[in-house]
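Need the bound structure for iron/sulfur cluster, inputs here:
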Amino acid sequence: MSQSMNNLFLYDMTVESTTILYGPGKRIVLWCSGCHIRCPGCTNIHLWNKDSGKQYSTLEVYNYILSQTNIEGITLHGGEPSEQLEAFTELLEMCGSRYNKILFTGKEIEDFVTEQEKIFIGLFDIVKCGPFIQSKLGSEFIFMGSSNQRIINQTNRIQIDLNKKEQQVTLFKINFDGSLSLQGFPKKEHLEIIKELDIEEEK
Ligand code: SF4
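Answer from helper R.:
Posting the output first, comments after.
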């Protein structure tokens, strides 16, 4: 393998196996630091700053992915992954076809127009695209925080019915210290509960 050239700014790298929130099966979720889209009402404000996490070489991230067993797929979440397009292209090309790949982007898929952007977008099996729009909060469809967003199935590799309603997941979690946190794509009523109970929102 050639020497790694790019660095990635990541808030976290997690292994998700108990929820379909970020895609089916056991998967690596890469939480990108940095987002200039800045949708009003975004629940991931802590990821907006590029320095909110740590810097890793693409090789370090690749080795982390390889060190995990039985991984089916990789999901890029944010933050805005396309703001680190070159480094992610390098990483995903290193990973090859052994994992399925899902992208969560706040841009529209039509915004990816240059040669390099098209190569990047072509690496994903499923692309969830579009900004979060507060007035369109909540969707019954999986992966969507607001109803304007779209899910583009580019390859049919991932066996998931994207048109099936009521697949959306919102998790209320009790942490070890007894505090409560919420994970996922909240609806209006969930945000009211958060406000009432002062629950911390998570990624
Ligand atoms: S694109 Fe995503 S991370 Fe960026 S502001 Fe919008 S909802 Fe938040």
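Comments: Helices lie at 58-67, 85-95, 115-121, 188-197. The longest helix spans residues 85-95.
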